[in-house]
Amino acid sequence: MMDIDVLLKQMTLDEKIDQLMQLAAFLFDGASHEGEITGPLSELGISNRTIHNSGSVLGGSGASEIKNIQASHLKTNRLKIPLLIMADVIHGYKTIFPHNLALSCSFDPGLVEETAKIAAKEAAVSGIHVTFAPMVDLVRDPRWGRVMESTGEDPYLNSELAKAFVRGFQGEDIQTSKYSVAACVKHFAAYGAIEAGRDYNTVNMSERELREVYLPGYKAALDENAQMVMTAFNTVDGKPCSGNKDLMRHLLRDEWGFDGVIISDWGSIRELIPHGVAEDEKNAAALAIEAGVDIEMMTSTYVSYLKELIEEGTIEESRIDESVRRILNLKKTLGLFENPYRFLDENKAKDIIFSEEHRLVARRAAEESIVLLENDGVLPMQKDDDVGLIGPFAESQDLLGPWSWIGDRDDVETIAMGMNKVLSKPIHTQSIQSIQSIHAIDEEEMLGSIEVAKKVEKVILALGESSDMSGEGGSRSKIELPEVQLELLKKIHEVNKNIIVVLINGRPLDLTRVIPFAKAVVEAWFPGSCGGSAIGRILVGDKNPSAKLTMSFPDSVGQIPIYYNHHNTGRPYDHNNPHNRYVSKFIDGPNKPRYPFGYGLSYTTYAYDNLNLSQPVLTDNETINVSISVKNTGERLGDEIVQLYVRDRVGEVIRPLKELKSFEKVRLAPGETKIVTFTISEEMLRYTHSDLRYSSDYGEFSVFAGTSSANTLEASFKYQMESEEN
């Protein structure tokens, strides 16, 4: 067994510092496209020595290349210290699942864990040791392109799914679980709260809000033993995260006790200079190492200046030692000193990667993620319906979405392929295939689409965003469909009113100009490798949709940020008195979103009744059971996600109008009724007070249970000291 302290003593200072450097795979010997250190890369100031002593690699395409990189590295590294191979395995490796925001709409931690486990298995057999996932940034602004990587706007659900992702990636025990990879939680912290939804922008909030709303997801992932943390690009309290000692060392290290590896995001240490907190690279390196950032990704301030900073006494060499020790400990935990290739197996990779078993899970995950937003009786379709399929996504293979790195569009099942699998008649297709089809449809394609619409009973109109309109760097100031797609919708509506809009996108959209022209709207997101089959099965009713939104859809972009768990004001809007001007409202539109958190339709209907509490009073050592009856009042088998919310009526600081506390998915046959029971304990009532104390308050509470955050039954209870009962 490797003795880390002995190894550390054998390392020179240069070798230690080089361990803190992460470089892209193409720079290493053995890479399939070995890069020359020219152009912008020459500005890194790195030498062959740094590459040979570097501690980790970003990327690497496939088992063969990664094996060659590791083998070459071990030949040139003096102490034979293996590389950590890291990659962005966000929502699948080769088998691509729906992106995280979509997957969260399943409200199914078990399914999330299963997809992460498959992603880990495919990545691990390909030689990857660490994935830069899960992203647990809570989001409230759909203008931000990276909402597609998140799990939505609710802290509780965010935390539950964060734990599920970590369990899936790492298994029960990262040291012994076969085909596991280490999870890297990102982006620490509060990246999802950037101003205006503009990527890399500023975050400004109180510490109390940070702790109550934005930190729980990270904490949940770390409590599940996630091995790494990635810093965020943004500032928190005026300090960029990669140089934020209060955030990284005091909160994450000292308060939470995290002793794993912290890695910067791409180039974020050098970005301390344009942020305006470091005067040069030397200063940036000092700030980052003092903050506790162990690995610098793709800039070279550490290798350029840490030695000089030590020699002049600005930082202690012990700071370097502690970072190197954490990196070496992770390598030891993963067993890389004994087997630097871990689970890499080129032969098994052929059978495991993109297997039929994995594709079936991908299809099921897509089915569980698709949200039915509108339906005026046109769905589900009959299998012998005469159907036309029109639009830029009719035969598009752009269904994987951003961060589908190894995913191959040639493997994607298109919507046309999926529909032809489930319909008994061939579908009439007018594919809009031009390169600019998302934003520009030529006249011939437009006329052809209209002709198809004229001769069929129903039209599936496949609209949306291309992959490059979401994801990192994909912030949008307007979140409607492109104008040409709205024009297509109107022209089709002139000749055929039975329009089913299927949306392919990575964020909530403003659908104000879509709804009047559609009899049904299906939010399919970027559904992944098997998205076409999933969409087809949903549209014909082979799968009854059950997913619920985890991020509110605004009525207009002017409402943003908009989210269900907002606070009241001193002058709240009164729906019974809509003409009162002097309340918190818009004079040109509604306060409420188009579609709220927890919303989603089904091909059956559900009735909620008899919300009961086991007792009217809660004390510290007791619990209250909340029960509600749910009946399937329709004619189809369905899965309903029953949601439980709580409101603290009077707090030491203002409290949200509703907070999700639990949920349960129940399957109901037509006419069947089930009683769903939740348990409320004192722990569920705690929140962050103005003095940052995390505790509960005695007083009155409301309980809500129902089908969405905006459609619930209500009851109440009192939380009091035990002695008050008499």
Description of the molecule:
The chain contains 20 helices and 26 strands. It is of the alpha/beta class and 726 residues long. The strands form six sheets. It has an eight-stranded parallel β-sheet. A six-stranded mixed β-sheet has the order 11-16-15-14-12-13, with helices on one face. Strand 7 (235-236) and strand 8 form a beta hairpin. Helix 6 (109-125) runs parallel beside helix 7 (155-170). The longest helix has 17 residues, at 109-125. The N and C termini lie far apart (63 Å).
Q: What are the salient characteristics of this protein?
A:
726 residues; alpha/beta; eight-stranded parallel beta sheet; six-stranded mixed beta sheet; 20 helices; 26 strands; 28% helix; globular
How would you summarize what this structure contains?
The chain is built from 20 helices and 26 strands. The chain has 726 residues and is an alpha/beta fold. The strands form six sheets. Strands 9-6-5-4-3-2-1-10 form an eight-stranded parallel beta sheet. A six-stranded mixed beta sheet has the order 11-16-15-14-12-13, with helices on one face.
Helix/strand-derived category reads alpha/beta
Global Rg: 27 Å
Poorly predicted sequence stretches spanning 5 or more consecutive residues: none
Helix content: 25-40%
Apparent shape: globular
Q: Helix count, per DSSP?
A: 20
Enumerate the strands of the largest sheet in spatial order, edge to edge or round the barrel: 9-6-5-4-3-2-1-10
Summarize the helices and strands and which ones pair or pack:
Elements: H1 4-10, H2 13-19, E1 21-24, H3 48-53, E2 56-58, H4 63-76, E3 84-87, H5 100-104, H6 109-125, E4 130-131, H7 155-170, E5 182-188, H8 207-214, H9 216-223, E6 228-231, E7 235-236, E8 239-240, H10 245-255, E9 261-263, H11 272-275, H12 281-291, E10 296-297, H13 301-311, H14 317-333, H15 346-352, H16 356-369, E11 371-375, E12 387-391, H17 415-422, E13 428-431, H18 443-454, E14 458-464, H19 483-495, E15 499-504, E16 520-523, H20 531-539, E17 606-613, E18 617-618, E19 623-632, E20 638-648, E21 659-668, E22 673-681, E23 687-688, E24 694-695, E25 699-708, E26 711-719
Parallel strand pairs: 1-2, 1-10, 2-3, 3-4, 4-5, 5-6, 6-9, 12-13, 12-14, 14-15, 15-16, 18-26
Antiparallel strand pairs: 7-8, 11-16, 17-19, 19-22, 20-21, 20-25, 23-24, 25-26
Helix pairs in contact: 2-13, 2-14, 6-7, 6-16, 7-9, 10-12, 12-13, 16-20, 17-20, 18-19
